[in-house]
Amino acid sequence: MKHMWVAVLFLTRSVIALTVTTKVINEASYMTTPYLTEPDTTTGVLHAPPKLFTNVSGSVDDSGTCQCSVYLPDTTFPVQKAEKLEIIATTLSEKFELELSKVREYSKMIELYEKQILNLTIKVEHMEQSSVSYTELDFQLLKVEISDLKRLVTQLKSSLGGSNVIVEQIYLEPVSTAASGIILAFHQHKLKESLTLNITNLTILVNELESLDKNNVLAIRRQIVSLQNRLKECEESRNKTTVPPYFPPGSCIHRGLLNVSQPYVVKLNWRGFSYKYGSWGRDYSPSNPEEEVYWVAPLNTNGRYLEYYRIYSSFDNLLLFRPLYESRVTYGEGSGAALYNNFLYYHAYGSRQMVKHNIKTNTAALRKDLPDAVTGNRFSYAGVLWQDIDFAVDESGLWVIYSTEHNMGNIVISKLNETTLDVLNTWQTRQYKPSVSNAFMLCGVLYATRPMNTRKEEIFYMYDTSTGQEGRVSVIMDKKLDTIQSIDYSPSDQKLYVYNDGYLLRYDVNFQS
Ligand SMILES: *[C@@H]1O[C@H](CO)[C@@H](O)[C@H](O)[C@H]1NC(C)=O
Ligand SMILES: *[C@@H]1O[C@H](CO)[C@@H](O)[C@H](O)[C@H]1NC(C)=O
Ligand SMILES: *[C@@H]1O[C@H](CO)[C@@H](O)[C@H](O)[C@H]1NC(C)=O
Ligand SMILES: *[C@@H]1O[C@H](CO)[C@@H](O)[C@H](O)[C@H]1NC(C)=O
Ligand SMILES: *[C@@H]1O[C@H](CO)[C@@H](O)[C@H](O)[C@H]1NC(C)=O
Ligand SMILES: *[C@@H]1O[C@H](CO)[C@@H](O)[C@H](O)[C@H]1NC(C)=O
Ligand SMILES: *[C@@H]1O[C@H](CO)[C@@H](O)[C@H](O)[C@H]1NC(C)=O
User: Fold this and answer.
1) Ligand 7 test: best mutation among 340, 415, 417, most atoms within 8 Å of CB?
2) What pLDDT was estimated at residue 199?
3) Looking at the UniProt record for this protein, which Gene Ontology cellular component terms does it annotate, in alphabetical order (predicted)?
4) In the prediction, which pLDDT does 92 show?
5) Looking at the predicted structure, is the pLDDT value of residue 501 above 80?
6) Mutate which of 169, 171, 182, 192 to test ligand 3's pocket (most atoms within 8 Å of Cβ)?
7) Do residues 461 and 431 touch, judged by C-beta distance below 8 A?
8) Average pLDDT over residues 215-236
9) Fewer Cβ close by (within 10 Å): the C or N end of the chain?
10) How far apart are CA 296 and CA 311, in angstroms?
């Protein structure tokens, strides 16, 4: 193989030589023919070593300079190779330029990468320094928290079992950004199942997230904290609503008033804002406690005369100002009226008479003096004019709250026979009537209030007619305006009806068990 390569090489060379020779000869014959006669005279060098110089034609120009074409054989100076080399060199330098520009480009990119690495380093350092760390521990923590939640739910479930407590709606926030805006809202009766389901879902979600997106760990943790808080609230509200148990209307098996709710503002009285004095409430008919009858009796604007009253046959009608009757009496005095068994009882103007008024016929069924009662705005309530005689209704029937000179203006309580308006029994308290803002009866116990400020009233005094014991209590009642003109308890729904500077407020009552 090697020999053959050599042979080919030689062959190639001789072919080149041959071609060049031919070319030179042709050239010479064309150019030099006229001058060939004097080659030797000009330069003897041309003759001398024939090995170096082959046959050369020359010529002498006008100024005597000898010109000749020389054939230089391949072995002496490889023109073709030089040419080739030159071409290669050019190509190479072009390539070099190209590579060099690439290198410049690369170095630019390297600079950019360096910057990016620097940025990343800073970020990583920041992450390391800050308390936020995304580690497996987070997921472990999450799982522990979720199992805690599950335990809580199980407890809640068992403690809720069988009870008919009404827990308010509980709203759970969206579980995570990944679970995008799933809002959990459910009623108490669905609470047990829903909560369990959702916490089951949380577990699934966390497992998914663990393999997906670690950055949501914090979001999830926040959700879990919120869930925990809400569970706690739910548990607490359950405990709270369990404490005052249910006592059917009319019953007095509880141990008295525990608490009242926030006031529910029913509406402004039907005569308007300037009718700041008056009373309102719900009838109690022991034979028909379910029957809904309401009265609203705003006094005339002088705060003294009871003239017009309205009777509503349902709460809706009251809200819609659709009275069953709107009637007139001439006149009652003060805001002490009360409705019992479809009769309106009120204090007759300018007297110490009690009036039993038939609301269906709008006629006075009976009038009778209240013995020893002091009237004429002498022992009215604090901040309320002309309420010397205040009727009250509780589970046991009709009462009247007033004062006597004999009892030095302190509250006197009398139980009335509603048929005859006779006083059945009387209790003398040691609470000065003009120092309390109002009073009502509940299961034979008188409760009296006093203002704490313009927005709060306190039920602070009680007198138990069954034992003759008086005592201090402190139940705060929020109010909407400064003065409470009347408070009437209705055994039908166990609510307090309050006339507050023209507004009709209603409160739920909780009892001690
Ligand atoms: C040179 O060329 C001339 C004319 O072509 C010829 O006569 C002569 O013999 C040649 N000499 C040699 C050495 O070839
Ligand atoms: C490095 O961070 C800065 C600030 O966040 C930003 O403006 C810059 O574009 C970042 N550089 C690179 C190369 O990412
Ligand atoms: C939670 O439970 C409720 C009721 O089963 C369901 O509608 C809601 O989609 C659940 N939440 C999640 C995150 O699955
Ligand atoms: C939540 O759980 C319920 C019942 O197990 C299932 O139907 C629902 O697809 C779950 N939701 C999510 C977001 O995993
Ligand atoms: C709720 O009551 C139960 C016992 O009935 C008690 O173990 C639990 O600590 C109470 N929870 C709160 C938040 O008061
Ligand atoms: C009484 O009611 C108030 C306000 O509604 C509430 O904050 C408080 O916990 C209640 N107290 C009791 C003993 O129920
Ligand atoms: C009320 O008076 C009527 C008529 O005199 C009488 O029949 C009734 O028994 C009395 N009621 C009470 C509780 O004393």
Assistant:
1) 417
2) 63
3) extracellular space
4) 85
5) yes
6) 182
7) yes
8) 70
9) N
10) 7
Are 417 and 334 in contact by the 8 Å Cβ rule? The answer is no
- For residues 448 and 434, give the distance between their C-alpha atoms in angstroms, rounded to a whole number: 11
Residue type, 319: L
Fold that domain 256-512 belongs to in CATH:
Lipocalin (2.40.128)
Ligand 2 lined by 115 (C-beta under 6 Å) = yes
The SS3 call for residue 379 is coil
Q: Write out the E strands in 261-299.
A: 264-268, 278-282, 294-298
CA distances from 262 to 258, 296, 456, 477 (A): 14, 21, 11, 7
| Range with the largest mean pLDDT of 1-5, 125-129, 176-180, 485-489 | 485-489
Distances (CA, A) of 394 to 18, 87, 135, 323: 144, 122, 66, 25
Element (H, E) at 393: strand 390-394
Closest CA to 404 of 438, 437, 442, 369: 369
SS3 111: helix
Smallest-distance ligand from the CA of 456: 6
pTM for the full predicted model:
0.53
Q: Decide if pLDDT at 36 tops 60.
A: no
pLDDT higher than threshold 80 for residue 335: yes
Burial environment of residue 253 by CB neighbours within 10 A (0 to 12, 13 to 18, 19 or more): exposed
